């Protein structure tokens, strides 16, 4: 039996799934120990509906992880279509920081499920960083030849910032400013 639930095809099932993912994002960002019952309640669905889509807490967390990373990967070229490269990079990093607030609480699950270099989202995420860096290098606002994996390592600090701290958003903004400042061409 396939452990990953197949994508629902009925509109009401897709809507339920989307509401569950949005509720999980909200609940897990607020409290890492959020129960599946709380997620279902916030989504406005029964617990049985939640379990039909996501049979375990880990399945829900991993789908949320994939969903959010896919959004970030797709966002990079979209931002470049509407903003200059440096502004696109900064806007993208702000979204990565927002994602970091969620990942803070679920990183152990994600790490356990994707450990050993088997994460299919890794390379596309690194490529999204490279797209932004290359555009900035091409227009002269960012340093050339920056390794996108080095930038990813720097961003890893974002999921170590406890969102329960009162200054979590301000701290993330300061860290991102340091990252961007280090990437700027002089």
Key attributes of the depicted protein:
mainly alpha, elongated, about 190 residues
Walk me through the topology.
Layout: H1 11-30, H2 36-43, H3 47-53, H4 57-82, H5 85-114, H6 122-138, H7 148-155, H8 168-183
Helix pairs in contact: 1-2, 1-5, 4-5, 4-6, 5-6, 5-8, 6-7
What is the helix content? over 70%
Mean pLDDT: 86
What is the chain-wise order of helices and strands? HHHHHHHH
In angstroms, what separates the terminal alpha carbons? 56 Å
Cα-based radius of gyration, to the nearest Å = 18 Å
Question: What would a concise description of this structure say?
Answer:
The chain has 186 residues and is an all-alpha fold.
Tell me about this structure.
There is one protein chain. By secondary structure, this protein is mostly helical. The protein is 71% helix and 0% strand. The radius of gyration is 18 Å and the shape is elongated.
């Amino acid at each position: 039996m396939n452990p990953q639930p197949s994508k629902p095809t009925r509109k009401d099932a897709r809507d339920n799934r989307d509401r569950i993912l949005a509720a999980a994002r909200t609940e897990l960002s607020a409290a890492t120990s959020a129960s599946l019952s709380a997620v279902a309640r916030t989504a406005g669905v029964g617990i049985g509906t939640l379990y039909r889509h996501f049979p375990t807490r880990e399945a829900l967390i991993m789908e949320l992880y994939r969903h959010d990373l896919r959004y970030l990967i797709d966002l990079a070229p979209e931002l470049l279509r509407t903003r200059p490269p440096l502004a696109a990079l900064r806007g993208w990093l702000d979204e990565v920081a927002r994602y970091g607030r969620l990942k803070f609480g679920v990183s152990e699950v994600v790490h356990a499920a994707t450990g050993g270099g088997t994460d299919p989202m890794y390379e596309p995420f690194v490529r999204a960083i490279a797209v932004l860096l290359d555009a900035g290098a091409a227009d002269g606002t960012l340093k050339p030849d920056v390794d996108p994996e080095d930038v990813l390592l720097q961003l890893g600090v974002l999921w170590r910032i406890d969102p329960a701290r009162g200054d979590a958003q301000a701290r993330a903004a300061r860290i991102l400013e340091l990252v961007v400042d280090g990437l700027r061409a002089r």
